[in-house]
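User: Show me an example of a complex going from sequences to structure tokens.

Assistant: Sure. Here are the input components:
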Amino acid sequence: MTLAAGEIPAAVTAQPMRDAFAATVTQAMADDPRIAVLLADISADRFAEAAARHPGRVVNVGIREQLLIGAAGGFALTGMRPVVHTYAPFLIERPFEQIKLDLGHQGVGAVLVGIGASYDGAEMGRTHMAPGDVALLDTLPGWTVHVPGHAAEVPKLLRPALAGDGRVYVRLTERGNAAARPVGEGLVVVRAGSARSLGTVVAVGPMLDRVLAATAGLDVTVCYAATVRPFDRAGLNRVAAAAGHPDVLMVEPYLEGTSSREVAEALADRRHRQASLGVARDNEVRGYGTPADHDRAHGLDTAAIARSAREFFLT
Amino acid sequence: MTTATFSRYADLPALIGLMTGDRKHQAASASTLDVLWVLYDQVLDVAPGRTDDPDRDRFLLSKGHGPAAYYAVLAAKGFIGVRSLRDWAAFDSSLGHHPDRALIPGVEIASGSLGHGLGLGLGTALGLRAQGRTAPRTVVLVGDAELDEGSNHEAIAVAGRLGLERLTAVVIDNQSATHGWPGGIADRFTREGWAARTVDGRDHRALAEAFGAPHAGRPLAVVAAVAPR
């Protein structure tokens, strides 16, 4: 790819996260008899081998997402570790009361693994988009939310989730960063600004490469977060304290402002400014096309992030 | 008073009266009373000392409202103290108007919102089967109006197709579903592959026989007909 002078690269790399997920879970099933996989047709082909090898531990309920989550609650009540998978809007939004009651209120856990993210399936339209998933889970206590930005991060986030017993959502996407980053230990500083820097940018998962390209000419610290719940408040506080200004720009691949409360809590001990980039809340983008088209519509392409960052830090 | 003096079917109205203040009328009319008694007295392999035994039977009260009869049976069978009935629904009581598994030993699910028990029960039966635990039975109590919730029909279809023999649904039918079930409730189950029996929901012998009816390779539905609400 040749870029014209002054042109900013798109900074999006294809990610085989679904393959990484299926391989990691299939492998873990051989070692851990607690693990069961619950499907609603989506990705059933990828678990055919595991289903043959582990009778009764891969269950495809068909296109029945209320039952998908309800059955997961039942599996967990018997001491098993359910892994529940389908397309993001049908995993989190359609059966939301089952998530609230059949998992949370019963006091049991599961690993929910969604694909499609905010608009990977752009040409399928709004019904297949789930930019509100993380905000929705924010209404419930006790959820861990992973937003990997590279396929190689998926096994590292999944394995501890499979071995645990909590409520975990893993938000997979087909579009991410060129390189995997350290995950599982809070915010990671990817590029440190000077002691007189303008502030801090937090890039969530697949937004990192776009943020790095967009802020290349700015004296800011860029942090990476592949786990957003619980949010690393202490880590952000430390990074903001070390920056020239305690101002924070949050760049998330789902609804804008989803983590505003987390940033506010992290910086409650100091005067600060914050801004949030993400999928627009104020109107429904009624378009098909490609994910890149939707990035542009929501101001999440590299050029728009660069404009927003300059506006926030330089004015 | 001791629990032992309140351990008979005849004691249930008095136990319910501790909660509701009504010693006779309301207690006798509780639609679930006889089904619950037969289950805990004759059918379920459960005991107060075995609430964590992985091989215990599971009883899931999906229709969580009107739980006084349930609490009375749990008290009669020694799962909860008789004394605890007196302050039911108080802020710090473990006994609310919908039961909560986190607060009551032996209660398998927290219920309230309708249409959740069959899905949880299906998952429980599958989870036990996946672990090779073939002995435990999972029994889910639902109401005929609760069947309005579409989630039930997701579970009914899949349980039938998977032949979940260790899953039993008992439907308390007091004809309270607003739009009814033309052709009968049992038909909704049998056409999905279940074995189904419809019996008098007050007849202890008929209920016990229905729960014991052979149903090889199929889940079992027992429709317990009681007086219309």
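The lines above are the inputs; the final block is the predicted structure for all two components together. The mean pLDDT of chain A is 96.
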